[in-house]
Design a protein that fits this description.
Oligomer: single chain
Radius of gyration: 24 Å
Strand order of the largest sheet: 4-7-6-5-8-10
Structural class: alpha+beta
Order of helices and strands: HEEEEEEEEEEEEEH
Distance between the termini: 14 Å
Largest sheet: 6 strands, antiparallel, barrel
Length: 200
């Protein structure tokens, strides 16, 4: 009964779905008043304040590339030229169309507000001497962070506190599920445990 009580309390904590980070909400799929099973997708939250661009560079540049170095990112469709920073280097081995072994470099740039995931972008890395290193394989922009928000318990969806594309802050309540059945179960288990303790 104590184990069941612990499980119920954990389920109660999942009745309120809050934003794990600041960003924009999209793809709200549930409706208020709907009974939803545990694991049901409620929405998608993306942090689009910054964008990531992963490109692949020849291993000939391996010794010149490091986290923190400056980079340039160009978005031709919007005629934008942005300055970014290398935030990750992964020593994978991907072959270019010419057969050149390449490693992955991720550059992060601030989003001026017009960039979305999937936008084609070109970029280069800027060495300390001012030399520009160009990738063998270009990439597309990705959101800084993206999370699918799901129901942790099976219950009725009481409240949807946001709209699609609304900006939210970390910790903000987004969805509220009905916990009446869990509250009843909690009371039953608490009484059962109390009665058992008296008998002991």
């Amino acid at each position: 009964s104590q184990e069941q009580l612990s499980d119920v309390r954990e389920s109660l904590s999942g009745l309120t779905v809050a934003a794990p980070f600041s960003g924009h909400i999209s793809a709200i799929t549930a409706e208020e008043g709907e009974d939803i099973p545990s694991g049901t997708q409620l929405a998608v939250l993306v942090d689009d304040t910054q964008m990531k661009l992963t490109q692949y560079f020849s291993y000939a540049y391996e010794e010149q590339v490091y986290v923190g170095m400056s980079a340039g990112v160009s978005i031709a469709d919007q005629m934008l030229n942005l300055t970014g920073t290398v935030t990750a280097v992964h020593k994978v081995e991907r072959l270019s169309s010419e057969g050149t072994p390449c490693f992955a470099v991720t550059v992060t740039v601030d989003n001026p507000g017009s960039l979305t995931e999937g936008t084609a972008a070109a970029g280069y890395l800027l060495t300390a001497s001012g030399e520009k290193l160009y990738p063998a394989i270009e990439g597309e922009l990705e959101y800084r962070d993206s999370r699918t928000l799901s129901a942790e318990v099976s219950a009725e969806l009481l409240t949807i506190a946001v709209e699609n594309y609304e900006a939210v802050t970390a910790g903000q309540t987004l969805f509220v599920l009905d916990g009446s059945d869990l509250q009843t179960e909690l009371a039953t288990l608490t009484d059962r445990i109390g009665q058992t303790q008296e008998r002991i």
